Amino acid sequence: MSLNHLLHMQEPKLSKKQGSKPMPQFTQLKSDNDLKEILKSAFDVDLDISGSWGYTQALSTVIHSAENPLAQFEHMFASMRAYVEMSMTQEAAARYGSINLNEAQRERITVDNLVYDKVVYTLSAIKESEYNTFINEYKEGYGQKDFDLSAHFKRREEATLKREVTHWFEVHQTLA
User: Fold this and answer.
1) What's the total number of domains in the chain?
2) Between residues 14 and 161, which one has the greater pLDDT?
3) Is 58 helix (H, G, I), strand (E, B) or coil?
4) Whole-angstrom distance, CA of residue 70 vs CA of residue 63
5) What mean pLDDT is reported for the chain?
6) 133 found inside a domain
């Protein structure tokens, strides 16, 4: 599956509410064991990986080696997956930006002599169009007497999507 194919996916479906807004459901990315090529094309990086996008243990991302500390490498990959899911594969009006991930939980699991890191991240993002509006409002209003900085950041917080995502990484090769 190529990056071009991934870019022709559909808008996210809406599910349970986050606050007063419906929560978008993002389509899980597919892989034909071509992660290296997709990430090279999208981000111009050469990662020593194979497997899939890491949604489950069976669809884990296999890390063969990492130049950075393993947790940093995993975070970088998780950020790339989020960007592909939430921006690159979306129609312009549905794209998210300012995507940030923070590690919430980490578990090392051994199954059939294979070692996995199961990592849960809390993710925050904001629709690109809304983010650009907030940035412009901030630039124009900052320093002005009538600019309500607290109200600005409150609206920005309300517009921010928050979700939890899980990544499975097969890491035994990097521990040797």
Assistant:
1) 1
2) 161
3) coil
4) 9
5) 87
6) no
